[in-house]
Structure formats: C-alpha cells, structure tokens
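Why does this matter for the project? Reviewers at the last site visit asked to see concrete outputs rather than summary tables. In response, this paragraph embeds two records directly. Each consists of the residue sequence and, immediately after it, the corresponding structure tokens. Nothing has been edited or filtered.
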Amino acid sequence: MLTKLTLDDAIYLRDKKYRIDTMKTNLTTGLVNMVLVSDWTTTRKVTKPPLIDSGGSTFVTPLKPVKPTKGGYIKVEAPLETSFTTPTPSTPATITEDTEFSVVVPSNGTGAERTNTYTVKYYSPDGTLLETTYIVIKQLAATDKLITESGLYILTEKLDNLITE
C-alpha cells in the first residue's frame, strides 16, 4: 500500500481529511512516519440541483477530477431520459481538469413534470472507477394552464392553451 501513496493523496482518520506533508519509511522494519496536514478544501461532491420551475433556469456545478495532473478524469454521460436540457460541455464528455458543468433548462410547456439524470463517473489515473454520482435535474410543470383530467390542455377556438388568471 505504501508504494501506491503519493504526497497528493488524502487520508481519512476518524471522519477528518488530511494531506500527507512528509513521509519517511524505515525499509528494514516497515514503519512509516507521516506528517499530516488538515485538509479543509471542498470535496468533489456535486452540488444538489434545485427544483426548477416551469420558466426554466441554468444550473452550474464544479466537477473536479481525482489527481488530474497524473491522469485522473471524469466521464459525464448523456441523460438517462430523453434530453430536454443543454449541458456544457456537451455529453457524453471526458473531463481532465477542474470544470464548471452547466445545464440550461428551457421553459416547460409540456404540462408535465420532467427529469434529466446525468451520470458522473470519477476515475483514477490507472482507469479504476472510484465513484459514481448523479446530477438530477427536475423541472416542474407549468401551473398557469388549464388541464383536463386526462392531462390534455383545454384549448381556445384558436387552439391556444387556455391560461388561468
């Protein structure tokens, strides 16, 4: 295990995160003396998207690969459902450096709540899958239009949606 540790690794002890400052190994006994420094930086967790109203919005979250300088990367897959959002960078995407991932959500004129789920996979430099998270974009239905019990809109003579006021 010691041969795989590098100074940019994090160590968790009792739910606290530390970075290795120095590490000395006695090769005859196998004992390791480490100086650890508290790590108060933010983790790579994805910000939870808010529930987006029918008018539309943009959601932005930082994505941070594990050890990007040594080859760590992130893969963001296309949404699991039929896409109604526009992500930047476009998906599927492989991300090799700290990136702002943004999703533009247009206004919802469908009359139904809708969801797009992006799968985010974090890989180590050797290609091992470390973690999978999800960005779930949920958008509410428009509530200003009259809908029948079957879910269809009530239309005017001009075939426009009848809107409540």
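We now turn to the second protein, recorded in exactly the same manner.
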Amino acid sequence: MKYASIDIETLGLDPDNCDIIEFAAVLDDLSTRSPLDLLPTFHCYVLPRSSYSYIGEPYAMSMHPEILRRIGSKQAGYSYFQTSEVAEKFKQFLDNHGYGCVGGGPKLNVAGKNYASFDARFLRRLANWNDLIPTAHRTIDPAILFYQDGDEKLPDTKLCCKRAGVSIEGPEHTAIHDAKVVIQLVRAAMPQKVVPCL
C-alpha cells in the first residue's frame, strides 16, 4: 500500500486565524519498505497569507524560532512557497513519484498523527488543495495502532514510540522529522509478512 505521511507546523490551533509555516510529506510503500533516508520527501516553508506578517498565537510562535528565522532570512537550500502554490507544487511531486491521484486515479492514502482532526483542517484552506490533492477519507493514525487495553485515551507520539521501540530523537516540532517518525510507527505496527500487495 502506498501512502504519504504528512505533517505541518502551524502558528496555533485555529485554521481561520493561524498560518501554516511548514509542510512536509514523505512517501512510503509498505510492499517495498525502502530505507527511510531514501524515501521521496517533499518539504517547504509556507510564506504568510498576509503581505505583512504571519497570523498566529504567541505561544505557537515561540515554539518555532528556528523555522521563523529561516523563513525571515530565506536561508538557502530550502523551498519557500506562497499558500497559493503549495497544493500545485505538492501535486507535481506526487505525479513525479507515481502517486498521482487526479483524473480517476485512486485517492491519496495519508498517515499522520492527528492528521484528520488537525492538519487536514488547515490544508483544506490552501488554494486548490481539495481539487488537486483528493485524499482517502480514512487516515492512518499511529495512536490507534499502539492503543492498549487499559489506556484511558489514545497514546501520544512519545508513548507510541516507546511501545514500538522507535527512537524519537531529532528536531521535534519539525515537519519532516515528525512525518518520518509516523512512517517508522506504521512500519513497526504492520510487519511486512502480513501486509498484502495491493
């Protein structure tokens, strides 16, 4: 099964009043399981909707000083897109890697921690996202994969990683890192021998 592990970083919890500042997607195929560092990766920083500044919550802005510094200086080696460009650029990336999902093809399978309840709400606000990036209505959330009897709530990422024996080391609260952690969790929960070839 092919899927994209998607993660975003935002400047708050409300998609109407807070901006996306980072978007990343890592493509995986459970039937081949290429090494993590060789998986196709799409990454960009998202420029503010307002021509003047980002919109968001102070606590969220304080969580992302490195990202905001990088965007402010347009540090070389990274992609910076307007909100109106993200969906189009991501669609081109998907098409280039055989994950195209427009024109009658299958919808994109998505994995992500809280994707359905959080990330998707922000992404639907991007220009042309709904038309260019049709996604399957079910998403893979590692929390349910590592739920255990006796849990009073779904486990957070750190507990999922502990249960899976997956290292969470790295720059937390960065989209690429978090998307790769989700892939490791999905792979740990779905041993290759039981994954059907679709």
